[in-house]
Specification:
heterodimer, A: 207 residues, mainly alpha, Arc Repressor Mutant, subunit A, B: 404 residues, alpha+beta, Phage tail protein beta-alpha-beta fold, Jelly Rolls, 9 helices, 22% helix, globular
């Protein structure tokens, strides 16, 4: 996509000092140029470290917001990349400690690392529980729902889903891990009474 | 396993679920070590998602952040000079999007009146009606996501994004059995035809059984077989659509509209064939196509547009402004040198309104870009700033008067 080219940082490297000066004076337009140039790299770092699209988006926003609140320090910065890395690293470190490595996130991470493209068996198993699960699936946020439906109902691979939804395979994987986490929690909360012990045990196996 | 090994596997998505716990514990036990590794690896550029990662909408990301953290022009000096629009105008433009309008010969006056209160007519949304082979109709905007119908061996699925997809699962798979069960697939393999139609004020995106993607603009329709089994893939279009045709040299893709056939191999193109516009225009983005009407054929290259004007005897090839041709798909109105009536036709289709001209047509050409997500009142308020036209809304009718 041509969009990628719009964000190549080389485009702004010539007038970067000028942009930084303007940002330090509170120029939001100049800030936007810097955001356009570096946000993809920062996001790429964040998704690699959090494995989660939503967290990566939030973290990217917080990193750039931090740059903005510290904009006065940008005057005369000659190594902007270094400055940006330092800010980013501090925030990423916090995120890792407080969120990513927190015990409450362990289920998500385990789902993420377990998640691979579905085999025909997995699709079959899913179909057998579909009625029970459909309600949970219906409550998924749209993007997660779509990734999940394509994966489990249509049996598409991560790459196929990625192509169709114009997402990257990593994002798809993250979506599906989130969806599985959500469905499991939903089922435990909403249908514990209705499910037999056996089916709960089976659910645990698949989700 | 050392922390470094675990971290590397974590970053490369190679941990097993059991190792997740090991990694967590190791990282929490030695925060300084984790820190040192991260700093080094990030510096060396080792922590990077594969190319293509970054499929999110960065414009949205920025806007959310700018709102939440109040990032806006608050410069203490210098740049304010550029803010040449009065505060009232700035407010209006903030609502209306960035829009520059002028009329020839004289430039616009900088005086902007507050737009009068108007009923809000909302822009087009994801709306369409699907007509199945047996004639039954499904209203797609209100249909629940999931399986809508089985057509022959093909599943019609409404995806959560609102998209419609035709999937032909392989026989023998669970899904294939589901598709084949209880269907009335004709034994003679005659194709079943479905038609999807958007009303005025609607647009829709669908995925055909061959993987080709179609964006249907407002007031348009597409008729297609639920499976492409013949020597060619043939669809019928009215109105306007953007096609991303899945390549298949052995089965050319043919789009028929008003006596014109567009022959496609594998390509992206825009086809505008509204009957109230002056021509049928095929604009090629990539690949190669041949347009045919009667015995007159014309091949075009990427960046070119072939137009057959109503009443004309042949093809006209030009290199149009691609941004303008494809603006609708990016949810923009882009008027570059457009006349008032050309603009109003687009507005009528998108907002599902009728247009009435009282008195002479406002003359002059308009230039500007505005989001299609704005309300019609916002759009009209911006057009009125040219001071050559006045609009009034009567129900769902826009009355256009020339301002003297």
């Amino acid at each position: 996509m041509s969009q990628n080219q719009d964000y190549l940082p080389t485009e702004i490297s010539d007038n970067e000092p000028e942009l930084l000066l303007r940002i330090s004076q509170g120029d939001a337009w100049a800030f936007r140029q810097i955001f356009n140039a570096y946000s993809r790299q920062v996001y790429s770092l964040c998704i690699k470290l959090t494995k989660d699209v939503e967290q990566a988006k939030d973290l990217t926003q917080e990193i750039f917001a931090r740059l903005w609140t510290r904009r006065e320090q940008l005057r005369g910065v000659c190594n902007f990349r270094g400055f940006l890395s330092t800010v980013a690293l501090n925030m990423i470190r916090n995120q890792l400690r407080k969120k990513v490595l927190d015990l409450t996130n362990e289920t998500f991470l385990m789902n993420y690392f377990e998640e691979s493209a579905p085999t025909p068996d997995k699709v079959m198993e899913f179909k057998e529980f579909q009625c029970m699960i459909q309600e949970a699936v219906d409550h998924l946020p749209p993007q997660l729902n779509r990734s999940f439906v394509l994966s489990r109902m249509a049996g598409m691979s991560h790459n196929e889903i990625a192509r169709q939804m114009e997402l990257s395979p990593l994002t798809v994987k993250s979506h599906i891990a989130r969806a599985l986490t959500f469905i499991r929690e939903y089922l435990e909360q909403h249908s514990a009474g209705a499910l037999t012990l056996l089916s709960l045990a089976i659910l645990k196996k698949f989700f | 396993m050392t922390l470094a090994e675990l971290l590397r596997k974590y970053l490369d998505d190679e941990l097993t679920p059991d190792e997740v716990r090991l990694f967590r514990e190791a990282a929490l036990r030695d925060p300084a070590g984790l820190d040192k590794l991260l700093t080094e690896w990030i510096d060396q550029g080792l922590v990077r998602a594969p190319a293509g990662e970054g499929d999110i909408d960065f414009d949205v990301l920025y806007e959310e952040m700018a709102q939440r953290h109040a990032i806006r022009a608050g410069g203490r000096r210098g740049l304010r000079l550029f803010l040449f629009i009065a505060a009232a105008a700035a407010c209006l433009l903030a609502v209306a999007g960035i829009f520059l309008l002028h009329r020839s010969p004289s430039p616009p006056r900088a005086v902007v009146k507050a737009p009068a209160a108007r009923p809000v007519i909302i822009p087009a949304g994801n709306k369409a009606v699907l007509t199945l082979a047996n004639g039954s109709r499904v209203t797609l905007d209100s249909a629940a996501d999931g399986l809508l119908a089985k057509q022959g061996g093909v599943l019609v699925v409404k995806l959560a994004g609102g998209q419609l997809a035709y999937k032909a699962p392989k026989p023998g798979t669970v899904l294939g059995d589901l598709a084949a069960s209880g269907t009335s697939a004709p034994a003679d393999d005659r194709p079943l035809y479905n038609e999807i139609a958007t009303p005025r004020g609607g647009f829709y995106e669908l995925l055909l059984p061959d993987g080709s993607k179609v964006w249907l603009d407002a007031a348009s329709s597409l008729r297609f077989p639920t499976a492409f089994n013949g020597p060619s893939r043939q669809v019928d279009l009215t109105g306007e659509a953007y096609f991303e045709v899945a390549p298949n040299p052995r089965q050319p893709f043919l789009i028929n509209t008003q006596g014109v056939t567009v022959q496609v191999l594998g390509t992206e193109l825009n086809l505008m064939a509204y009957s109230d516009e002056d021509a049928i225009r095929t604009t090629l983005v990539s690949g190669s196509v041949r347009v045919v009407r009667g015995d007159k054929g014309q091949q075009i290259k990427p960046g070119e547009q072939a137009a057959w004007l109503h009443g004309a005897q042949g093809w006209q090839v030009s290199t149009p402004d691609m941004k303008q041709v494809l603006a609708w798909k990016r949810l923009e109105f882009r008027f570059e040198g457009l006349s008032m009536d050309a603009i109003m036709r687009q507005i009528a289709r998108w907002y599902d309104v009728d247009i009435e001209y009282r008195g002479p047509l406002p003359a002059g050409e308009f230039n500007g870009v505005i989001s299609r997500k704005k309300s019609v009142a916002d759009l009209l308020a911006v057009l009125e700033q040219t001071d050559i036209v006045h609009f009034s809304l009567e129900g769902r009718k826009i009355v256009v008067e020339r301002r003297l």
